Amino acid sequence: PFGELSLAFVDDAEIQILNRDYRGQDKPTNVLSFPALAPLADRTFLGDIVLAYDTIKAEAEKAGLPMEDHISHLVIHGFLHLNGYDHEMDIDAKNMQDLEIAALARLDISNPYAMREIL
């Protein structure tokens, strides 16, 4: 199976507007996902992933992560949301984290949650 999605990098002001309008959270966030309402006729359009460049850069710097690794993580996170995963309940959050860690490992990117477990 294959699918298509769109990625957009926006500034913090734009993601704050989207976060407010679609999630009721009037603050910037690092990534938002918007699943497609219906598939296109000849291919599967999964939806849109919107990434806040400034927030992601600040998070990567604070955590000492390569920017590319953090972006990869958030794209995978957004992709999982486009495919119906969420992290509303602890068990679902753990499931998403496990899938993210496995996908990142295939890209030779270390577990982004490991440092949080140490702190």
Binned, the helix content reads: 40-55%
CATH superfamily: Metalloproteases ("zincins"), catalytic domain
Q: What is the third-level CATH name, the topology?
A: Collagenase (Catalytic Domain)
Highest CATH level, the class: Alpha Beta
Basic shape: globular
What's the structural domain tally?
1
The count of helical stretches stands at 5
The termini sit apart by 40 Å
If strands are numbered along the chain, what order do they take across the biggest sheet? 1-3-2
Q: Pick out the low-confidence regions.
A: none
Helix-strand topology string: EHEEHHHH
Strand content bin: 15-25%
Structural class: alpha+beta
Mind telling me which CATH architecture this is? 3-Layer(aba) Sandwich
Largest sheet: 3 strands, mixed
Question: Using DSSP, what is the number of strands?
Answer: 3
Q: What number is the mean pLDDT?
A: 91
Rg, alpha carbons? 15 Å
Question: Would you kindly provide a brief summary of this structure?
Answer:
It is built from five helices and three strands, in the order βαββαααα. The chain is α+β, with helices and mostly antiparallel strands and 119 residues long.
Walk me through what this model shows.
This protein has 119 residues and is α+β, with helices and mostly antiparallel strands. The protein is 51% helix and 17% strand. A three-stranded mixed beta sheet has the order 1-3-2. Its cofactor is Zn(2+). GO terms for molecular function: endonuclease activity; metal ion binding; metalloendopeptidase activity. Pfam families: YbeY (PF02130).
